[in-house]
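Review form for a predicted model. The reviewer records the input and the model, then writes brief findings.
Reviewer: anonymous (R2)
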Amino acid sequence: MLDFRMETFLEVCKDMNFTKTARRLNMTQPAVSQHIHWLEEAYGTRLFSYQGKKMSLTPAGEMLKNSAATMSHDILLLREKMQESTRKKRELKIGLTLTIAEFEAAKSMARYLNENETYSMLLSVGNTRELLKELEEGKIDFALVEGNFPRDIYHHQLYATEPYIAVCAADDPLSRGRHTIDELLGRRLVTREAGSGTRNILERYLEMKSLEVTDFSALVEAGSIGLIKQLVEYGCGITFLYRMAVKRELEEGRLCEIKMDDMNITHDFTFIWREGSIFHEDYQKIYQMLKKSRDKSTEERK
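Model under review:
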């Protein structure tokens, strides 16, 4: 187990407020302060700084937080592995972003499970920010993400690279010829909600063109990719999605890719875990097996 003062420090990092932490841990505020003071004395540096009443981590505090969070996660996993050694079973706890969960992961996960019949799997689905929080709290072991993450904190390996395309209904005039983003602005845009990885890619591209999503003639936001595809199929607007998310609809002729002269975007799906984890080799082996399963599934689809 982590030193109890280190556990208090990690809890303070969540609240950035000694009083709130003390209340949540059922401790007195002086006791919380004493734990932090002990750590600062032990490491010979300040862990928190103050600007008025606002509390924040110092660079040294940030370093300790990242290392302690990794240690805390490893301790939890070590306990599980020790228990599993008597049951001869293993549970993988994997985080997936929504697009990857819906359209990418199933075949490779299924192949992996079929080849490892004694393994159990817990799959957590959320946006990248939510999955990073779960990694920090030890709720998942590793994650497959499409969004940005701090590369100095997480070890990362490329899982797949996917084209990001513009899409319209099959009978839309935009389905013919080639176009520019300016030609699309007169249409209604159907897209994911703000903050989603899929939408962030579009917003970054538009920003390079000095544009925003509000520059389209109208905007429809939906939290479901399936709903977005149906609305576009029924002629309610255009959208931008990963090609894998519309693969079936493109093959069946229900949707069509809008060929663009000024947009050529691909995006990486990345396998991540805490940097410095003592289980690095285990995660590396699991990554390689899942990547191999994914590559086999891709070859079979060709």
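Findings: The mean pLDDT is 86.
Further findings: The CA atoms of residues 129 and 222 lie 19 Å apart.
Recommendation: see findings above.
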